[in-house]
Design brief:
Helix content is 79%, strand content 0%. By secondary structure, it is mostly helical. Helix 3 runs parallel beside helix 14 (322-334) and helix 6 packs across helix 11 (215-248). The two termini are 27 Å apart.
């Protein structure tokens, strides 16, 4: 069994060793783009070989050899390097949109959960406000929101206080996102809770405004920043679900190896959402908090529609950068 196992895989092990020898001697950046892509694919294949060798109780020296080979490859691919502006630019312009497209099912699952939470909140409030309202944090009680809206004190932050207000919003949103991301390591349970709970809050508030005849006004206040903010929360939850996916469905890999595969993707997805939170907080601090008497609701909704179009153009556009093709190929191989 071990002889046949080695014979059918020896060629790719030798090729990976050859590429690693070159990378270790001359640095990874000296490899051609085709060699970098080949290195990533061979790394995934040898991880599978190592996992199979362990499950079939093949000789210890073979397992040791494969473990050493994957360790060297992991060090080259995921080693810590000084982050450069070029790397950040590539992350936001190429890798982030590519990760969004490759993992669209996980992202869609996050948005479906959020919508389900919204339905629970909306329907629960209309069916029995006294039952669902006590579940909300004190700062999200619908009666206070409606009172502030009717007295036009919703928009009562002086201009010189708005940077501080904007930073508070951003910190709170990032805290929620980090919780949703980290929740993936507890089998996604915390992620599910946070995305449902945040959806429920929006559902309760929108139901309360619906009852008062302010439904359109509510969304005119929420959506200018909410299109980006809610998308970012959904993407952070998707990053958490990628970690949970590695734990629940490692396929032929061990769970630790599956986390090594999905972890870097989840981290990049999570890190890139921080930019969206910054943009959303700036919009909320400097536009959403301006009175509707100054910026009419129709203009606010039009601005929200524009942000939605631009956001999804950015996430769905196809970049011809070779890195995009590399991510796509690696993603399809892992499936």
């Amino acid at each position: 069994m071990s002889i046949a196992f080695i014979q059918t895989r020896q060629e790719r092990w030798n090729r990976l060793e050859q590429l690693l020898g070159k990378a270790e001697k001359l640095k990874l950046k000296t490899l051609a783009k085709e060699e970098l892509l080949e290195l990533g694919i061979l790394y995934q294949q040898v991880i599978s070989d190592l996992s199979l060798a362990k499950t079939q109780s093949l000789p210890d020296d073979l397992i040791y050899f494969l473990n050493d080979l994957t360790g060297r490859a992991y060090h080259q691919i995921y080693r810590n390097e000084k982050t450069t502006w070029t790397q950040l630019k590539n992350l936001f312009t190429t890798e982030f949109p590519a990760l969004f497209r490759q993992n669209w099912r996980v992202v869609l699952f996050s948005f479906i959960l959020f919508f389900f939470g919204w339905l629970l909140g909306f329907g629960g409030f209309l069916a029995g406000p006294k039952v669902i309202t006590p579940l909300l944090p004190e700062e999200f009680l619908p009666e206070e929101f409606i009172q502030r809206f009717e007295s036009d004190t919703w928009f009562n932050h002086p201009l010189d206080q708005r940077p501080f207000f904007s930073s508070l919003i951003m910190i709170n949103n990032i805290r929620v996102a980090i919780g949703a991301f980290a929740g993936g390591m507890v089998l996604g349970t915390l992620t599910v809770y946070l995305i449902l709970f945040n959806g429920m809050i929006i559902g309760v508030l929108s139901a309360a405004f619906w009852q008062k005849g302010y439904f359109l006004s509510f969304w005119a206040m929420i959506l200018p920043h909410g299109v980006i903010e809610l998308t970012a929360i959904g993407l952070a939850a998707a990053a958490g679900f990628l970690l949970a996916k590695a734990l629940f469905f490692p396929k032929e890999l061990s769970r630790s190896d599956a986390l090594k595969v999905e972890g870097p993707k989840a981290m990049k997805l999570m890190f890139a959402t921080l930019l969206l939170f910054v943009i959303a907080a700036l919009i909320e601090g400097f536009l959403s908090t301006i009175s509707a008497k100054i910026i009419p609701e129709a203009y606010r909704l039009g601005f929200a529609a524009l942000t939605g179009v631009l956001l999804f153009w950015y996430l769905l556009r196809r970049n011809r950068n070779p890195k995009d093709r590399k991510l796509k190929t690696a993603g399809s191989f892992q499936k």
